[in-house]
Design a protein that fits this description.
With 410 residues, the protein is α/β, with parallel strands linked by helices. The protein contains 14 helices and 15 strands. The strands form 2 sheets. The protein has a 9-stranded mixed β-sheet. Strands 3-2-1-4-5-6 form a 6-stranded parallel β-sheet, with helices on both faces. Helix 4 runs parallel beside helix 5. The chain is globular.
C-alpha cells in the first residue's frame, strides 16, 4: 500500500545531482514506493534533459515533459511541487519564483548562497504557506542517525570534543580507489558555490554538527588558497575551523583539496564514557567504539544494533523500507537510496501530503547556511564570530560579494 498519493514533481536541473535525484525516484519506484512522480524536467542543456528523460521513461514508465526554462515548467499545470537541483547561486531566485507560482519546494543543500538570500526564502515560504525543505542527505544515513540517538540517550557520557579530517585531491573519486570524478566548474567559483569547503562541503558538516550536538555559539576559522588560479573568484583549498557549542562542546575541522595521490577522511568523537572513531567523513562507519570499561565494538556493529532495535513506526519514519537501502559498500553516492537521497525526497512528499513539517524546513536549512557563512566571516575577519552576529546580519562582510553576485544588497 502506498503511503500517500504521489506528489507530481518538476525536476529543475538535470546535471550530476539532478540525475542522482531522478535515479533515486526510479529506484524507489522499482522497490514499490512512489512518493513522487516526476512529471516534468527542466535544463538548458538538451543532452542532460534527454539523459534524465530516458532514465525516467525506461525505469518508471513515465515520459516527463521537457522544459528549457524554469518559467515554462512553473506554468505546467501538471506540476504541484518542484525539486531544485541547480548551482547554489541560482537557488534563492528559483525558490522564490516557485513559491510565487504556488509550488512546494525541495531544494538541494545548501538552501542559498548567503544568510540574506535564506531570509528571503524563509519569509516567502511563510507568506505562501508552502513547504520548503532541504534535501541534505547526510543526516539521513543510518550511522549518523544512530550517533544522534546515542548522544541523546547519554550512552557516551558527557562529550568533550570532535576532530574531523577530510583531505583529498582536487578531483576526488566518488569511492576511494576509483578514478577521479571531475566536479562541475561552478563548485570552485566563490560567487556560484560560496566556497568549496566552507559551503559546498561545509553545508553537510554544519547540518550534521548541530543535528548531533545542538546549537553552535561561536566559530573561528582560517581559509587559504594556494595559487592554483589567479581568479579572485576561486574558492579556498584549505579550511580549518573550530565550532564552540552553547553546551561547551568543541569541534575541530580540517578540510583540504590539494593532495594528489593522497586521501584521508575520518572522525573522532571523545566522550567521557567512550571514544568513537569513523574511517569515513560522510557517515559513521568502518570505525570502532572504545569504552572506558575496556570493551570495544565496531561502529558498524553498533549501527546495526541500533537499526535492529527500532520500533517499526520509528524505522518507517527515519529510514522507510524501499526508500533507504544499504549499498553494496555501505552508503555510496552512486547508489542514491543508500546515500539518503530517497529519504529526503520521501520526507518532503510526506510533509506536503500530510501537512506535517519536513525534517529540514527552510529555517533549519537557513541555520546551516549561517554556520557556513560564519566560517567565511571568521576567516575574513581573522577573529572568532558569534552565531547571533551572523544570523542577525550584523557581520556579513565576507558575504558582500556573494550578495552582489545574486542581485542582493551587499
Amino acid at each position: 500500500m502506498p503511503d500517500f498519493e504521489p506528489l507530481r514533481l518538476g525536476l529543475i536541473g538535470c546535471g550530476g545531482m539532478g540525475l542522482r535525484h531522478a535515479l533515486a525516484v526510479a529506484d524507489m519506484h522499482a522497490a514499490g514506493r512512489r512518493p513522487v512522480e516526476i512529471v516534468a524536467i527542466c535544463d538548458t542543456d538538451e543532452g542532460k534533459r534527454a539523459r534524465v528523460a530516458a532514465l525516467l521513461s525506461e525505469r518508471t514508465g513515465r515520459q516527463p515533459a521537457q522544459h528549457v526554462s524554469t518559467g515554462t515548467l512553473l506554468d505546467d499545470r501538471r506540476v504541484e511541487a518542484v525539486d531544485v537541483v541547480l548551482p547554489t547561486s541560482l537557488h534563492h531566485a528559483t525558490v522564490l519564483d516557485a513559491l510565487s507560482a504556488g509550488m512546494h519546494v525541495l531544494v538541494e543543500k545548501p538552501l542559498a548562497l548567503t544568510v540574506s538570500a535564506c531570509d528571503l526564502i524563509v519569509a516567502a515560504a511563510a507568506r505562501a504557506g508552502k513547504v520548503v525543505a532541504s534535501s541534505e542527505n547526510y543526516r539521513r544515513l543510518p550511522g549518523n542517525r544512530a550517533l544522534a540517538a546515542l548522544i541523546a540517550d547519554g550512552a557516551l557520557g558527557p562529550l568533550d570534543a570532535m576532530f574531523v579530517r577530510n583531505f583529498a585531491p582536487p578531483e576526488p573519486p566518488v569511492k576511494r580507489g576509483e578514478a577521479p570524478v571531475e566536479s562541475p566548474g561552478w563548485y570552485r567559483a566563490r560567487t556560484h558555490a560560496g566556497g568549496y569547503h566552507a559551503m559546498e562541503m561545509g553545508a553537510h558538516e554544519a547540518d550534521l554538527q548541530e543535528f548531533w550536538f545542538g546549537a553552535v555559539a561561536s566559530v573561528s576559522a582560517e581559509m587559504r588558497t594556494f595559487g592554483h588560479s589567479v581568479s579572485p573568484d576561486v574558492t579556498e583549498d584549505l579550511l580549518t575551523a573550530t565550532f564552540r557549542f552553547e553546551s561547551g562542546f568543541v569541534s575541530n575541522i580540517a578540510f583540504a583539496s590539494t593532495m594528489r595521490g593522497f586521501e584521508i577522511a575520518d572522525r573522532l568523537l571523545i566522550g567521557q564514557a567512550a571514544v568513537l572513531s569513523s574511517a569515513a567523513w560522510h557517515e559513521w562507519q568502518n570505525g570502532a567504539v572504545a569504552r572506558a570499561d575496556g570493551t570495544r565494538q565496531s561502529s558498524d556493529d553498533l549501527v546495526a544494533a541500533w537499526l535492529g532495535s527500532l520500533a517499526p513506526d520509528t524505522r518507517q519514519r527515519l529510514l522507510p523500507e524501499g526508500v533507504w537501502t544499504r549499498g553494496r559498500d555501505g552508503s555510496v553516492a552512486t547508489e542514491p537510496l543508500s546515500y539518503g537521497v530517497g529519504v529526503a525526497i520521501h520526507d518532503f512528499a510526506r510533509a506536503v501530503r500530510t501537512g506535517t513539517a519536513p525534517e529540514i524546513p527552510a529555517d533549519r536549512a537557513r541555520r546551516a547556511v549561517a554556520l557556513c557563512c560564519a566560517m567565511m566571516e571568521a576567516a575574513h575577519a581573522g577573529a572568532p564570530v558569534r552565531m547571533e552576529q551572523i544570523l542577525s546580519g550584523e557581520i556579513r562582510a565576507a558575504q558582500a560579494a556573494l550578495n552582489q553576485a545574486i542581485g542582493l544588497p551587499a
